[in-house]
Amino acid sequence: MKLGFGLYRHQLDSDHLQFARQCGATHLVVHYTDYFKQGDQSGNARGDQPTGDQYGWGVAGDPNALWTRDELQGLREKIESHGLKLHALENFDPAFWSDILLEGPSRERQMAHLKTLVRDIGAAGIPVIGYNFSLAGVYGRQKGKWARGDAISVGLDGFIDETPLPEGMVWNMRLRENLGPAAVGQISHDELWRRFEAFMKEMVPVAAEAGVRLAAHPDDPPLPKVRGTPRLVYQPTMYDRLLDVLPHRSNALEYCLGTLTEMTDRGENCENIYAAVDRHSRRNAIAYVHFRNVRGVVPNYKETFIDDGDLDMARVLTILNKNNFDGVLIPDHTPLLSCAAPWHAGMAYSMGYMKSLMDRLQQGLTIWSP
Ligand SMILES: [Mn+2]
């Protein structure tokens, strides 16, 4: 297995690429959708993961301006010139597939566009595209001084904002400036699964031919519904259902340990999470891992420092290693450290912890025993 690092679009400069390499990363995951272009107006400070308010993470991109093969190839080459490999893009721009998620009038056109995009991702030499088949997206989380030493972190504090998802919004981004009055996406879980299955049956063959793995992130926060819209993967076994829709190497998982540990069915001492890691890595279904930790489950959980949550990270690594997992691990999120560079310091802390455990495993040392 390999140590990787995740960067947002506004961080794709030499300083951040060197920082990733300096932390020991060999691989990179890139959020190519810009969640931060409106800066603090949308509640998204550029120095941390996005949270946003009920208007989301700002305005999505142009539905007709797909990322091109040339630009993606240029991105890969730039990353390689810094001694790193581009393992995955993370997430489609919501504007590219809003009507696939909402089953709107542009669904057919958007499916054709997304197929072109997946082919271009493959042609550009990028092996994985992470996605989250979600109507409301990552919505409703708050920030507080919740991690060790009063470090600022993200979580839910018992409160769930149930403002319905308005017209003109999907995946926690706005498709246009002005939102409509009507609520959208108020459908059943069965209907959501039907849409997902239709999507996968068309997309997996295209991805397979392009040599690309589609890698699914679970719903964060993992509640049955958010903003009146159903969620696809909010318990660990729903990942199995997702894989069984169409078992194939191109139907894979973006394995968010943080989100999984926030789930109410995680079992006593997170036993169901260790079992899931074992099951899914044995099945070769994990394309890459969001290697992070939390305390508690929805609607009362908080993101923690990597060594301070409910999940035993050394036990997870031991399982992955036993099953010969050869994908990439990235920190995903961390609490912010109190200093001049809170995000960098938090990430460096996680990377050092991960690298130390991974190096020991590679030397054949035991890092966890029952
Ligand atoms: Mn994640």
Strand and helix layout:
Elements: E1 2-8, H1 14-22, E2 27-31, H2 69-80, E3 85-90, H3 94-101, H4 107-123, E4 128-131, E5 142-147, E6 151-157, E7 169-170, E8 173-174, H5 189-210, E9 213-216, E10 225-226, E11 229-230, H6 237-244, E12 251-256, H7 257-261, H8 271-282, E13 286-290, E14 293-297, E15 300-304, H9 313-322, E16 328-330, H10 342-362
Parallel strand pairs: 1-2, 1-16, 2-3, 3-4, 4-9, 9-12, 12-13, 13-16
Antiparallel strand pairs: 5-6, 6-15, 7-8, 10-11, 14-15
Helix pairs in contact: 3-4, 4-5, 8-9
The structure holds manganese (II) ion (MN).
Manganese (II) ion is lined by residues 217, 220, 256, 258-259, 290, 332.
Highlighted features:
globular; alpha/beta; four-stranded antiparallel beta sheet; binds manganese (II) ion; TIM Barrel; 370 residues; eight-stranded parallel barrel
What portion of residues belong to β-strands? 15-25%
**Can you summarize the main beta sheet?**
8 strands, parallel, barrel
Question: What sort of overall outline do the alpha carbons produce when their principal axes are compared?
Answer: globular
- CATH class categorisation: Alpha Beta
Question: Which regions contain 5 or more consecutive residues with pLDDT less than 50?
Answer: none
β-strand number: 16
Strand order of the largest sheet: 1-2-3-4-9-12-13-16
Overall pLDDT level: 95
What is the terminal separation in angstroms? 22 Å
**What name is given to the CATH topology?**
TIM Barrel
Ligand types:
manganese (II) ion
Radius of gyration, taken over Cα atoms and rounded to an integer in Å:
19 Å
CATH superfamily: Divalent-metal-dependent TIM barrel enzymes
Q: Give me the number of helical elements.
A: 10
Structural class: alpha/beta
Task: Quickly give the CATH architecture.
Answer: Alpha-Beta Barrel
